[in-house]
Amino acid sequence: MDAINSVKGAFESENNCIIEVLGLEASDLKQKISLDSQNKVGAYDLAMADDPWMPELYEAGLFANLTELGYTPDPDFVEESLAIGMHPYSNGDIYTLPFAGNVQLFFYNQKIFDDNNFSIPDSWEGVLEIAKAVHGKDGKVGYVIRGQQGNPIVSDYLPILWAYGGNVFDENWNVIVDSNEAKEALELYIELLENGANYEKNDIVAAVSDGKAAMSLGWPSWYISGETATAAYAPIPGKATDSGKKYATGMIGNWMMGVTTNSANKELAMKFLIYVTSAEAQKTAAEFGGVPTRVSVFTDSELNKKYPYFTAILEGTENSVIRPRTPLRTDIETAYGAELSSAISGTKSIDQALADAKAAIEAIMNK
Amino acid sequence: MKRKLALLLIFLMTGVLITACVEGDKPAGKDGSPVKLVIAARGGLPCGCD
Asked: B42 and A102 in contact by Cβ < 8 A?
């Protein structure tokens, strides 16, 4: 919101218009834009949306088809970010543009790594080795998982599952959460917990930042604000073992923006959308906490001096994975998260939990 | 005569009012008035904090 306000003035002057930005809390935003989409003429000309919402919002027809309005894709956008704006995903027409970049990263305490001469691990086998070396020494915690039911544990576990070559669905939408890769990934996840702890978000950030814990996954905004970071960071390891195959592992979480289908000013709204996502606007917005979605801005030498994490976010985004593209994602996350939680608490065996997760997800998909 | 003038005045005023209302609904900007675009945005930084 600050990022938009920081750049809207020039557009207002040049286009004889007034841009009103309504800042809403995420769940309120989704509810309001969904309700407004039912009106013949909408109250909103443009709307921001979190990338997991997109399948649901695209199917509801909330966003105008920018391709039909004459928009052509700009190759300066990171490919993985631009793909989220397409419906169907990655190869359809463009409906939204990536407004703010975001991808999960691997965070670690620099002092613990320096004191022990650890290198940044490039495999999960390596992460576990460091966790074992650190855990219990001087009261320190090796690796911190975010194992609460629902979104937390699913977001925390999926990058590891992807590093093992697993996924939730195969290319034909068959549920494969009980594959051998998934079992190995969950075994590793439980070993990390045995050599670490299970905290909620704020405690994870405090523990890794303060040097109580060595490592965790997380979103950049947890640890990074403006020009400072409270922990060191790197892209998430993409290999299960040091000699294994490397996979994309960073969960992407871009915020998108689109023109509403029921806007009375679609052409001007699209003009503003192109402006507010331009390289020039993203460079200005960076000074107000905006994270870019364009390669030219991520790699801008001046910005990189101030925001060195741009490099890690770009690398993470270029090796990112999108969450399942289905409007049923929330239900799936709830069911899957409950079973993963049962496995880490020991209530169910790994095999049983993953078999039950598969059955639950299949039931949701077959409703 | 006065009655006719009064009726004519009312007729003309009604026309002016109707025109004013229609003008008000025109796409903004064409008559010099600024267009208003409303953006429904995420408050604060749009971070992936879920």
From this structure: no
